[in-house]
Amino acid sequence: MNKILFGTAALAMSASMALAQDVVRLGTEGAYPPYNFINDAGEVDGFERALGDELCSRAELTCEWVTNDWDSIIPNLVSGNYDAIIAGMSITPEREEVVAFTQNYTPPSPSAYAATTDGIDLDTAVIAAQTGTIQSAHVATMEGATLVEYPSPDETVAAMKSGEADAVLSDKDYLIPVVEESGGAVMFVGDDVPLGGGIGMAFRQSDPELREKFDAAIQSMKDDGTLNAMIVEYLGEDSPKF
Amino acid sequence: MCYLTTGKHMAFYGSFGTVLLLLAITAPVALAFGFGGAMAARSRVAPLRWLGKAYIAVVRGVPDIAFFLFFVIALDQLFEWLRHQAKCPDWDAAIRQGNDFVVCPAAKLPLSSSPQIWHEAYGFSLAVLTFAIVFGAFAANVLFGAMKAVPRAQLETAEAYGMSHRQTFWRILVPQMWVYALPGLSNLWMVLIKATPLLFLLGIEDIVYWARELGGSKTPRFTDYPHGDWRVYYFGALLVFYLCFTRVSEIVLGRVMKRLTHGQATMGGEAQRKAA
């Protein structure tokens, strides 16, 4: 027993020593405004960029941003190509079997349908959603509706606009700018759907020290209200706050 | 500063260089893999022959996307595992912890403290290696067939002159087989040119990734240059690029074919001889 304890302590020490000098690599998708996107300068920008940088400075870590395809974002995390996912990833029980989440940094926020006309019967419609998301999982359970999946969020909206799909189901925060800037061509239809347990950062299950540092930083941002201010700034007044 | 010179567009232009560099490195490496595979597959040593045939059959049978999703990660883990064994013999925690793959920090490839450029270079080399293994298997099959297509009489003559197996192979068989291999290899080259979008699965941003990213509709909130769905124009530009590239490849391959045909006992070689 002693030996195990000592081993764990030594491991924890060596791990935290290693972390002190290492760079923490943050993986994101870079295609999901306002959460994360590539700005005109070619850099990662958006809500999660600002949030991630603030969390890193609070946890006194040096962070670096990496973009990765959504499809392979979890396999590359568990295999160690970067240390955390911060990519608008909702906390779900299925994902928790593979990765470990921090507490959520957005409250559970609704998903919504958008379409080009409001006369759509969602029960029998063709609905576009991004592959491997809580929205695509939700449409798959809807009897009568047909799911079409696309690899990136932008392509789901493009499919709805071009008529390939009748409607698109996505995070409401993602669709709000799409609807507002469309000048009336795109509108929300049906009721909002509450999905997921909010968005969190995902870490390897074997990496609890790093996760706890970010968890504490998120908690401190919740406590002093900076997180709410950031949500209002990037996601809008109407987005749910803590 | 205008729309076409934003940092994003610069990255788009740069990615053409990435793709060309990838092709320039991958093609010879894949050819070497193919040559090795073909040599192994026709070896007189049975285990080597099985290895060569298994390589050709297995790799050709696995879909590219599966290769790029799983094989590359497995390859990366293999390298890190080897380094882990060498550098951290005292490490007593398990490497496989559930889904996670955890090696000691000194064994990470590249070290997580190294600058992003090294991560990109490493990803790039993994991509080259994976492309070389996949396309090498196809090339091996082409070369294997080409080696068989060299007329038996040529090899018999070499043997009659007292050449050893090795001499016959290098002096008679190899110089003559290229003319049979070239049509198959040129097909592979054309496929390889267009296979680069698979790179984004490895985090490498190629021309198709940037075309999709730049062409996707942009709202004024997130950019100074809002526009609708312009993907068709960006993909149109890529179409022109690919067509030009294919045309140049065809011209070059045509010239190579002409050279290789020279003095060969094939219909093309005979026609050249008569014309001269």
UniProtKB/TrEMBL annotation, chain A:
Q: Which UniProt keywords apply?
A: Signal
Q: Sorted alphabetically, which InterPro entries does this protein's record hold?
A: Solute-binding_3/MltF_N (IPR001638)
Residues annotated as domain Solute-binding protein family 3/N-terminal? 23-238
Pfam families with a match to the protein in the record: SBP_bac_3
Hey, what's the signal peptide range on this chain? Answer: 1-20
Q: Which Gene3D superfamilies match?
A: Periplasmic binding protein-like II
> Oxidoreductase: present as a keyword of the record?
no
* Lineage top rank: taxon: Bacteria
* PANTHER family for this protein: AMINO-ACID-BINDING PROTEIN YXEM-RELATED, MEMBRANE-BOUND LYTIC MUREIN TRANSGLYCOSYLASE F
The name on file for this protein is: Amino acid ABC transporter substrate-binding protein (PAAT family)
Species in which this protein is naturally found: Salipiger aestuarii
TrEMBL record, chain B:
TM spans (from-to): 12-33, 54-75, 121-144, 232-253
Q: What is its main location?
A: membrane
* UniProt name for this protein: Polar amino acid transport system permease protein
Family affiliation: Belongs to the binding-protein-dependent transport system permease family.
Report one GO cellular component. Answer: plasma membrane
Listed InterPro entries: ABC_transp_permease_HisMQ, MetI-like, MetI-like_sf
Q: Which Gene3D superfamilies match?
A: MetI-like
Q: Sorted alphabetically, which PROSITE patterns does this protein's record hold?
A: ABC_TM1
Q: Which GO terms describe its biological process?
A: transmembrane transport
Annotated ranges, domain ABC transmembrane type-1: 16-253
Q: Which domain of life is it from?
A: Bacteria
Q: A Pfam family matched by this chain, by name?
A: BPD_transp_1
Q: Keywords of this protein's UniProt record, alphabetized?
A: Membrane, Transmembrane, Transmembrane helix, Transport
Indicate where this protein resides in the cell: Cell membrane
What membrane topology was assigned to this protein in its record? Multi-pass membrane protein
